[in-house]
Amino acid sequence: MEVGPIRHLIVVLGDQLDPQSAAFDDIDAAQDLIWMAESADEASQVWSVKPRIAMFFAAMRQFAQGLESCGYRLCYRRIDAPESNEPLDVALANSVRRLSPEAVVYVEPGEWRLRAALREAVRQGGCVVDQREDRHFLCSQAEFAAHTAGRKQLRMEYFYREMRRRHRVLLAADGGPEGGAWNHDASNRKSFGRKGPPAKTEPRAFAPDALTQSALRDVERHFADRPGELAAFDWPVTRSEALLALRDFIEQRLALFGDYQDAMWTDEPWLYHSRLSAALNLKLLNPLEVIAAAEQAYRAGSAPLAAVEGFVRQILGWREYVRGVYWQSMPGYLERNALGATALLPEFFWSGETDMQCLRQTLQQTLRLGYAHHIQRLMVTGLFCLLLGVDPRRVHEWYLAVYVDAVEWVELPNTLGMSQYADGGVMASKPYVASGRYIQRMSNYCSSCRYDPAQSSGERACPYTTLYWDFLLRHESELRSNQRMTMQLRNLDRLDAQARNAIEARSAVLRARWTASAPLKTPLKTPLKSKFS
Ligand code: FAD
Ligand code: SF4
Fold first, then answer.
1. Atom from ligand 2 closest to the CA of residue 451
2. DSSP at 390
3. What confidence tier does 170 reach under pLDDT thresholds 50, 70, 90?
4. Structure confidence at residue 515 (pLDDT)
């Protein structure tokens, strides 16, 4: 494209679709040019599924169209451009050389790899970097560092209380927590029992408009070999759609969010969850407006405190906390493997073809929709990998590839830390391990499964139950020092030698079945350096 002299080249990444972003603070439509690029290389850092790529491209195209309609000039490279195979940093360096702006402006990227790469790209292009703070988040890296200073052990709960006070969320008139307690989980986390989920309306769906359809077509064409389907793609991809999705959640599902946030049910992917994570992570929504909408529902009497507090904790607590852990721990965090896990990821993670009902449901839903709720991620797919002893780096690459909301700063601590305990206890005070009985209690999956969660050995033994005991046996000596594992290890002590041998024999059969021939869909990458180094 032909453009006159450029003052600022404003770079907007796919997860920075925020009109309030600091990158636009001093934008001048006459002198500045906004730069966006759909990148095949970014979609291939891991084996991203079609819904995830489509989420980014559709939302980027919508955002770009909105900027153009406001009169701003854009240099937008679509995936079908001949140079779209260039890595993002190479493409940027080439644009900087060609356009010679006075400065390149962007908000700090959310991913460690890109932070270094973009800075280097601009330097290579011979230009000045103006990197600005990401105001989307409610806790800056400096504030998180102040919170962690001098603490031997990090715990989300204390961080969350600080955040409630700082942002004045769900506080009583005396400055204490609304309802007299900071955490109301004792009233949350029920299962559905035999009757299944109470009646509810399906979440609001957003039929793709012509622009979104163009993105879906391009993903089908350029990423034909990727798993996943786009037929059911109905995610909010604009800010106005995201606001409608927020309102729909607050009005229709928030009231039962707390009660059933850990429950699972066959063919019910959404239940009472918000489906807002992708809109938040792409910055179509601001976390404070989501929190305010939930608090307002409580104050208006339309949702109970336990549900609202539980929801607020996920966003004001967990979401900010994992970001803090990510920036404090990178790049070394990516290499952590506290339990020395080395197994390959079973091939059925890419197809959902398995006779274990819980995994079949969760995996097929994940590949079809790009979504699974927290407990499906933590206690079905994550638990299985932890018990089997899959290399955490491979688990991380799978999680980063399959969800529409997957961005590294939030995915990595959740996967490697919370679900795989690979950080040795930074994110979780003990490994989240359980037998098939947990899944039986929280879902109806087991009732249509060929396995029995009560059995730990033999042909009909639930693989989770076998691998649970096998996990405790393999890691017994490391876990003895963890007080929070006392109860589980006491139960292990009750197993006699015969039971132990039977578990070990069955677990060896399972391991040989699943991990011997797993293909490497996501080539293990060394920590990514700038393409120029
Ligand atoms: P809801 O259940 O409605 O929760 C509301 C919001 O709270 C979410 O939209 C999300 O923004 C936030 N939230 C909830 N739990 C967490 C958490 N543990 N960490 C950070 N934010 C949280 N979330 C992502 O956004 N991207 C990821 O790549 C991601 N990877 C995960 C990997 C694993 C192994 C696990 C266990 C969890 C992961 N999560 C991730 C957290 C959580 O599972 C998702 O945010 C949630 O399932 C998204 O669905 P929802 O919007 O319906 O959430
Ligand atoms: Fe999953 Fe085991 Fe239940 Fe089958 S029996 S659904 S494998 S937990």
1. 5
2. B
3. very high
4. 76
Measure 516 CA to ligand 1 centroid, in angstroms.
31
Nearest to 162 by CA among 324, 280, 21: 324
pLDDT tens digits for range 483-529: 999 999 999 999 999 999 999 999 999 999 987 655 545 544 433 33
Atom 2 in ligand 1: which residue has the minimum CA distance? 273
Say how far apart CA 526 and CA 196 lie, in whole Å: 45
Ligand 1 atom 9: the closest Cα is on which residue?
277
Which bound ligand lies closest to the C-alpha atom of 392?
A: 1
Closest-lying ligand to the alpha carbon of 374?
A: 1
Atom of ligand 2 nearest to the CA of 464: 2
Query: How far apart are the C-alpha atoms of 4 and 126, rounded to whole Å?
Result: 18
Residues in the chain: 533
* pLDDT of 84: 79
Please state at what angle helix 287-299 crosses helix 239-252, rounded to 10 degrees: 30
For residue 184 the two structure tokens come to 């109301």
pLDDT per residue over 403-414, tens digit each? Answer: 999 999 999 999
**In whole angstroms, what is the distance from residue 45 CA to residue 143 CA?**
31
Q: Whose CA is nearest to atom 1 of ligand 2?
A: 358
Examine the pLDDT at 377 and tell me if it is beyond 90: yes
What local confidence, expressed as pLDDT, does residue 2 receive? 58
Q: Can you give the C-alpha Rg of the chain in angstroms?
A: 24
156 and 147 Cβ atoms separated by less than 8 Å: no
User: Quick check: helix, strand or coil at residue 171?
Assistant: strand
DSSP secondary structure string, 218-246?
Answer: HHHHHTTTSS---TT-----SHHHHHHHH
pLDDT digits (tens, 9 = 90+) for 50-79: 999 999 999 999 999 999 999 999 999 999
Look at 79-83, 221-225, 270-274 and tell me which has the smallest mean pLDDT. Answer: 79-83
Beta bridge partners of 105: 10, 130
Which domains, and CATH codes, for the chain?
Answer: 8-132 (3.40.50.620), 141-334 (1.25.40.80), 338-515 (1.10.579.10)
Run of H or E residues at 301: none
Q: Locate tokens 């153009």: which residue? A: 68
Strands 33-37 and 103-107: unpaired
**Whether pLDDT at 424 is above 60:** yes
Range 70-96 burial, b when 16+ CB lie within 10 A, else e: eebbbbbbbbeeeebebbbbbbbbebb
Whether the Cβ atoms of residue 399 and residue 411 lie closer than 8 Å to each other: yes
Q: What is the pTM of this model?
A: 0.95
Place of tokens 């070990």: 504
Q: Whose CA is nearest to atom 52 of ligand 1?
A: 275
* Residue 269 alpha carbon to ligand 1 centre in Å: 14
Q: Which amino acid is at 62?
A: Q
Task: Judge whether 215 and 339 are in contact, CB under 8 Å.
Answer: no
Please name the residue whose Cα sits nearest to atom 36 of ligand 1: 378
Cβ burial of 337 (10 Å; 0-12, 13-18, 19+) is middle
What is the percentage of the chain residues whose pLDDT exceeds 90? 91
Q: Which has the closest alpha carbon to 308: 242, 376, 250, 368?
A: 250
